[in-house]
Amino acid sequence: MASPPPGQPPDAAYLAQSRVPEILFGAIFPAAIATIFVLARFYSRAILMKNWGWDDSWILLSWLNGGVVLTVLSWVLTHYGAGRHAILLTLPDIEKLGFIGNVCRFLYTTCLFTTKIGMCALYLRLFVEQRDRMIVWVIIAYHTIFTIILFFLLVFRCTPFQANWILTTGSCQPYANSLYASAMLNIFGDITLIAFIIPKLCTSTFSSQYHPANQFHTATLKIGRRQRNILIGVMGMGVLVIIAAIVRLIRTIDELKSANNPGYDLTFASYDVMIWSSVELNMGLVCAAAPATRPLVRLLAPRLLPNESGGQLDNSAARRSNYADGTLESENSQPGDERFELGGWLKSGTGKSVSDQGYGNAELWDCGGLLKNETCVAVEGRRIDSDRGDGKDHNY
């Protein structure tokens, strides 16, 4: 859209130019896609599995923040002049844009943090091996520390704080400082999450650990090719999040440099920064929510995710020793089908509470609906362990 010739007053056609439709579409469409996946996750976890976890609470907070509130604020920003030529804005409009934009920066930072923590909480459900859990906790600590630092940079950037949106008072440090820190630290955090999970999905193997303190084995899980490829594809969407973050960083840097030029039309030219921010946040929500939607997908489209290995547990191997491995594998399984290798005294059946034909009750730890039968990792229970010869109860 051409600008009016230098020295010439803008005509009606120029003043009527608007990028509001692009801003609204760029905010609403990604949020709608994310909402579908998030609600599917919530239905799977709360209704079908009846097992709501901390990871779900983090994703709920992230969705309310990024998928709902920030989408509404994008519309509010257009009401005060975003997407229109700056020449049309009054000083009160500019100050309101500055105030809402400042709120959006805090919400944006919070949404990125809660999404990452939600994904890490799911990983803590899946992995019980000490090394894996330590890596996840390090990732959580990393995101927590740098998010706190970013909040300090945002809070103390301007003196007084109101100078963030009131242009006639106080002074501010260059926004580029917190921008570079936020973007680079977030991009690195995204890379660490992808680098952690993709290799594990490629090998289709999850953790296996015997816990001496609690006297039980945890499980190694192997999943079928189709489910593995779907999960790799979903997690691979994290690359799109990284690309969106990089593009947003480049465009924001360009806008900050251009804003120093007299007469630069910031509110009209910077519309795509809002769009890329929405894409980054909502695609992150899709990556975080999609793995736990499997129960609903199997309910609606069972052929898409068939029960590749619905066999019963063979207890014979487990009964040879307290620490023997048993196998849960279908009699009709084919090469490449998912196979459950379980350790300790193993229980047959699926679900939250199962029985091992008189040997006590067991609890199968839930793994967020990510894997077959929505159960994984550990077997717990109590039984009289005659093999040990002491006639005492032992926890597993």
TrEMBL record:
**Any one cellular-component term (Gene Ontology):** membrane
Q: Which residues cross the membrane?
A: 23-44, 56-77, 97-124, 136-156, 176-198, 230-253
Q: How does it sit in the membrane?
A: Multi-pass membrane protein
Q: Which residues form the Rhodopsin domain?
A: 40-298
Kindly name one Pfam family recorded for this protein: Fung_rhodopsin
- What protein family does this chain belong to? Belongs to the SAT4 family.
Record's protein name: Rhodopsin domain-containing protein
